[in-house]
Specification:
With about 130 residues, the chain is mostly beta strands. The chain has strands spanning about 1-5, 10-15, 20-25, 35-40, 45-50, 60, 70-75, 80-85, 90-100, 115, 120-125.
Length: about 130
């Protein structure tokens, strides 16, 4: 069983920064990845970035690479999404999600994640 709880969203002006976090609770091994996804109104859920919990290896969507950074604090069982240079088009509900899948090509797809947090709203004003 895995529980994910996001926090740290909010309202920010374009060009600003936010750092949502995701607290992870699991009794299983550390062989998993945490992904961040986002879903804007009327849009499909899209991949933002991910991190291997034990390796720290990250991967990002082209739309956020260079602006967003995924990191984790193993001692706090928390993963972070540092978002810089925010744009109005970054406005969405942001979700963290858990997967044990090892098929890297599939890790951008929401259906390959088995546990999800409740989401946190990020709004970027122009």
């Amino acid at each position: 069983q895995v529980q994910l709880v996001e926090s740290g969203g909010g309202l920010v002006q374009a060009g600003g920064s936010l750092r949502p976090s995701c607290a992870v609770s699991t009794r299983t091994s550390n062989a998993y990845r945490l992904g961040w996804f986002r879903q804007a109104n009327g849009q499909e859920r899209e991949f933002v970035g991910r991190i291997g919990w034990s390796t720290g290896i990250t991967s990002y969507a082209d739309s956020v690479r260079g602006r967003f950074t995924v990191s984790r604090d193993n001692a706090k069982n928390t993963v972070y999404l540092q978002m810089n240079s925010l744009k109005p088009e970054d406005t969405a509900v942001y979700y963290c999600a858990h997967t044990r899948s090892t098929i890297l090509s599939g890790l951008t797809m929401p259906q390959n994640y088995d546990y999800w947090g409740q989401g946190t709203q990020v709004t970027v004003s122009s």
